[in-house]
Amino acid sequence: MEVLEAIQARRSIRKFKSEALSDDLIRELLEAGRLAPSGMNIQPWRFVVVKSPEAREKLRSATPLAFVAQAPVVLAVCVDKQSFSQVGDRARELQEAGSLGKSFNAEEYAQRRNRDPQAALSYLVLNAAITIDHITLRAVDLGLGSCWVMMFDQELAKLALGLEDQYHIVALLPVGYPDQSPGLRPRLPLEKLVLKEV
C-alpha cells in the first residue's frame, strides 16, 4: 500500500473483531513507531502492550470509552520524562553522523528544555504524536484498525498499568481487525487551511 493510500484509508475504529493479533503483527506496529523521527533523536516514547483480558479490564477503569477494553490489543504510548537526561548522548550521535554542527552545546540545550517542566513535557508529547501516527498508518497497511484515545484518567491508567511516575501516558491506542467501515469525517478544504504563500 502506498503511504497516501494509507493516509486516505485511515479511520478511527471503535468496533473490533474478537480475533487476536499475532505477536508478529504487534511487533510490526511497534517497529513502525520505533522508526519515527524525534527532536534531537531523543526517542522518548515507550510502549505498554496490553493484551490479556484482565489487563484490558483494569485499564477500562481509567476511561469512559468501553471499546478501548474490547480491542484485542491496546498500546499505551508513553513518554519517559527523564529522556532529556540522554540528550547529550543523542546529540553526540547526531554530531558524529554529521547532522549537527560541532559547536552545538547539547548540555545547554537540555538545561534550557528542563527549566520549564510543562514545556518539556509538551515537547516529549509532540514527539510521541509522531510515533503514534506512524503506528496508525502501519496498522492500516496491515489491514488493522486503531483509534487514538486521549479520553482517560492519567493516574488511574498508570495505576492499572503499574507505571512509575517518570512515565506519562500520551494516548491509548486500541488496535485490532476492524468490525466497521466508517466513512471519512468532514474535512476543511485546503483553501481554508493555507493562510498564505510568501
The quaternary state of the protein chains shown equals: single chain
The CATH architecture: 3-Layer(aba) Sandwich
Distance between the termini: 35 Å
Helix proportion: 40-55%
Please tell me what the overall shape is: globular
Poorly predicted ranges (pLDDT <50, ≥5 residues)?
none
- CATH topology category name: NADH Oxidase
Major beta sheet summary:
4 strands, antiparallel
Count of distinct strands: 4
Which whole number gives the mean pLDDT? 92
Encode the helix/strand succession as letters: HHEHHEHHHEHEH
Q: How many domains, in number, for the residues?
A: 1
CA radius of gyration? 19 Å
Strand order, largest beta sheet: 1-2-4-3
- Estimated share of beta-strand residues: 5-15%
Structural class of the helix and strand makeup?
alpha+beta
Number of helices: 9
CATH class: Alpha Beta
CATH superfamily placement:
NADH Oxidase
Keywords: Oxidoreductase
Family: Belongs to the nitroreductase family.
GO molecular function, one term: oxidoreductase activity
Pfam family, one: Nitroreductase
Q: Which terms summarize this structure?
A:
globular; 9 helices; 198 residues; four-stranded antiparallel sheet; single chain; 4 strands; 13% strand; NADH Oxidase; alpha+beta
